[in-house]
Amino acid sequence: LRPRPDALLRLGIFASFARSSRSMRFTLLLALAGATASAAMRAELARAPRRPSVARRSARFVRTWPAAPSVSAVHSLMSDAAAPMDPVPAPAPPPPEAAPSKFVQFSDAFSTLFPLWTVLSAGVALKAPATLSWFTTSYFTGALALLMLSMGITLTVDDFKRVLSRPTPVGVGFVLCYLMMPLLALGIAKGLGLSSALTAGLVLVGCINGGQASNLCTYIARGDVALSVIMTTSTTIGVLFMTPLLCQWLLGT
Q: Which of 13, 134, 182, 212 is 20 to 30 A away from residue 246, measured at CA?
C-alpha cells in the first residue's frame, strides 16, 4: 500500500516536534493544523459529485439529439397530410314534433277569429235584434262559464304559483283598473261635454272590474293567461268596495 502524502507530512511533523525548541514547536503546530485542514478539504471534495467535462457534456448532447428522418419517412408524412380527412358526421336532427290534431287546429283558428265573431254578432244584433232574442241572461252566464273553463284547461297549478310568487304585476293592474280607468272615463265625459246621465254611465263603466273577454284576448295574443286570470279575479273581488267608493268620489252619489 502507498502511504498518503498528508499522512507522511503529519508523521514528519510529529517527529520534528519531539526534537525541536519551543518556537519551533509552535511553528510545527501551525503546519500540523494546516495539513489537517487541507486533508479535510480534500475529503469533502472527493465526496462531492463530479461535474462532467465540456467534452463529455457535448458527447452526451450529441448522443441524445434525435436522428434526422429519412426521405421515405418525410414522403410518408406528406402523403398522410395531403390525404382527404374523413368527413365529420352531422348531428342527428331532432325528432319532429307531433302534428296537432284537427280539433286543436280548429280550436286555435276559431279562437283567433274571435274579433270577427264579435263584429258579426254585433252587426246581426243591430240589424235584426229578434235573431238573438233567445240568448237570455241564463245563456249568457253559461257562455261565460264555458269561456272561463276553456281558459282554465290551458293552465296548470304551477302557472298560478308562478304568478302569485310575483305579486307586483297584479298590484299594478289593480291600481290602473281603479285609478286610471275612472279618471280616463271622467276626462272623456268632460271633454265631450256629455250630460250628467251619460257621464255617470261612462264613469260607472270605468269603475268596474275587468271582464272574462280580456282572458280570451290574452290567450289569442299568446300572452300570460295565468296572469290575466289572476288580475281579473283580483279586480272582481275589489269591485265590491272600489266601485261604490269611486262613484261617491267622482260623481258625488
A: 212
